Amino acid sequence: MYDSKAVRKQYASVFANLLQLDTDSLVSKHDIASELFMNQGITFTVYDNDEGIERIFPFDIIPRIITGTEWQQIEQGIAQRLKALNLFLKDVYNEQQIIRDHIIPASLIASCPHYKREVFGIKVPYDIYVHISGIDLIRGNDGVLYVLEDNLRTPSGVSYMLENREVTKRIFPDMLASNNVRRISHYPVLLHEILLELASTQVSNPRVVLLTPGIYNSAYYEHSFLARQMGIDLVEGRDLLVDNHKVYMKTTKGLEQVHVIYRRLDDEYLDPLVFMKNSVLGVPGLIGAYRKGNVAIVNALGNGVADDKAVYAYVPAMIKYYLNEDPILQNVPTYQLSNPEAMHYVFENYRNMVIKNTNQSGGYGMVMGNTISEKEWLRAKVIIENNPRNYIAQPIVQLSTVPCFINGNIEPRHVDLRPYALYGPKGIKLVPGGLTRVALKAGSLVVNSSQGGGSKDTWIVDE
Amino acid sequence: MLSRIADSLFWLNRYMERTQSILRVIRSHYIISLDKDAIGSTTWRPILEIFAQLTDSEITQIEAKPDIVLQKILTESTNPNSIKTIVARARENARGVQNHITKELWEAVNSMYHLTNKPYLNQKLSGPEALEVVDQLMRQSVLYAGIADITMPRGMGWDFMKLGKYLERSMETIVITDKQCQLFGYDMQQESDITKWRFLLMSLAGYEVYLKTYQTFRHNNNILHQMLLNEHYPHSVIFSLTRINRYLRDVIKDNESNEKLALIRTFGRLYSKVNYMDPERLETMDSRAFFKELRNELLVFHNQLEKVFFSY
Asked: Which of A222, A391, B61, B279 could cross-link with A337 by S-S, CB 3.0 to 4.6 Å?
């Protein structure tokens, strides 16, 4: 909110507005917001003693502001990165030119658990693999935006982005109106259009469904929210069946063919005939229908190879290789621990490093060098040495902070930003906004909701 | 409509109907049991026999302890037919179809669920406030029915909800009436005092209707008439079957399965059996056998309905 001297320009009007409110009215706005989330059932489920408890995702009432100019850079940077990642996926599941040209080592791909040999050679509609992505960005203490992580499988959180805005409309209506904040509410419409466009052109009235693991999934709220916003059926695996390489859903009238599936189910669970044999969430025969081109699956299968944390280090090289451009958004420097020299360097300097497991997300399996105890570090070190391919290290970036309303005071907290990009036959589109995740604990750099993070409404304002 | 969605809507409404019916029975029994021996049974045995799935000796142990019985039927989570379990199941079904029911309806189920999980309920049930708890639950359950009626759009989903409701209601009427007849030893020719029938009538919200409709003293025949054939009484079997007939016609129109004709025939037979009964000879028929037959045929109908619409 502040630069070295004064309140930043884009925050001036919000700051002036907030000055007019006393602590009590801010507290009451905070309470209203929490109540709105609870009543609407915008909750995620935490499991404790076999009993599911519903919690709201903590929401901070003070919006985060990003200027139009900054946004332009984000937009272009993400579009560029997505284009390259998409070309990479097409390449790696077909000709594998990038490996032959020794840009990316074959061993890295071969050892990636998310590389799915089962979908090698499958042609996907319009050569688009990453229809929906949530690329995480952070701002370092040098003021530069970095890409922290590419989420190209089933990124979640978009419903929070939309609901956060709706709640802000209720608690700060005048502030929102007077700031020229760009609109985000058309996200479901854009998504629906893309899903419809992916159906075979020979079908005049394609049927699109959203495949959910079911009511016990922690993101079930988001699944039902998106299905409702798009007016499509929310289905579970048991609602679908495959007959003669076509996918049908079981309705009260009989079977009806499904043309496009927006799945919120991981690759491994999709088809027990191809992947995990004991998965009851998936649909037997689905991959066969996909291979035949009778059904489009969004996002494509096997995308995990492109958002693998070890492959991440090669994304700038991919941009150069496929697009012959310099990356607009920088990577955080990344050390592959499979490289002995890098491992040595990281172990020497572990206090300034964060070490991440390449196969886990949600902040699990992560070592923060600045807070870990000596004893824990020795234990972690052994685990890492046993399987260095599964680990990367990055210097700890001091995430930027924004003002938050915490326990009656305005305090700085670290944040990241996840803008949502949609890639359809007509190109890449970003809704101007995103999910700002906040590390609610003072000083903490971990923003994941499963690790005590919250979120904020994110405004893109034109100066 | 997805079969799973239809199934969930059907069961959501069925469970909520069952909740209301159990609460009404409990309430009537609780009040009437304060007058000793007014209903042919001094204890909660018949209620436990209908709703609790206990062995004979287990019933003997608790039948005279109203607080334990109330906990068993209302709040015990190990009883598969307690209000707490049934409401939890209704909510489970509602959660799975959240985008097919209105927000208000979801909130009605959700708040009833939270009410049944309040830790203070058991304590209240064992004291003088027991009836207050039952009333509170009852209010929530009729609120649900009202909200469903006011906010839910009509169409396929609504038809399945109604099928669930009326199938459940006809079943409850048959089971509860049968239990009452059993207490009289199925001897419908003997003369019974109207006060002996009061529990049945109050449990099915029919006492006032009865007094206003039937002016003769052939109570046994009249009661059976009201429970089976009175078209203006919303808990009579014929009332429910007439509605099932209507909603079934609506949902079956577009269905293309082979079992559809068998379903229509089964229901037709069941409907005619009740519709063309001789109202003058109700008290002389073998009521035990008749109720049993009716129940079995309803079960067959339900199984076929599942096969045609819900098999997924």
From this structure: A391
Q: Could you report the per-residue pLDDT of B177-207, keeping only the tens digit for each? A: 999 899 888 888 877 778 788 888 989 999 9
> Residue B39: its pLDDT value, please?
52
Mean pLDDT, rounded, of chain B = 90
- Considering only the beta carbons, identify the residue of B2, B98, B103 that sits closest to A251: B2
Name the interface residues of A facing B (CB cutoff 8 Å). Answer: 39-41, 214-215, 220, 224, 227-228, 233-236, 238-239, 249-254
CB nearest to A254's CB, from B6, B107, B257: B257
Contact: A238, B254; criterion CB under 8 Å:
no
**Taking 70 as the threshold, does the pLDDT of residue B116 lie above it?**
yes
**Whether A252 and B2 lie within 8 Å, measured CB to CB:** yes
Full-model pTM: 0.82
Predicted confidence at residue B41, as pLDDT, reads: 57
Per-residue pLDDT for A364 more than 80?
Answer: no
**Domains of chain A by range and CATH?**
9-332+397-461 (no CATH), 337-396 (3.30.1490.270)
Least confident window among A195-204, B94-103, B189-198, B246-255: B189-198
Collect all residues of chain A within an 8 Å Cβ-Cβ radius of residue B1: 251-253
Q: What is the mean pLDDT of chain A?
A: 89
At A252-296, the pLDDT tens digits run: 888 999 999 999 999 999 999 999 888 889 999 999 999 999 999
**For testing contact with chain B, the best of A252, A253, A258 (most B CBs within 10 A):** A252
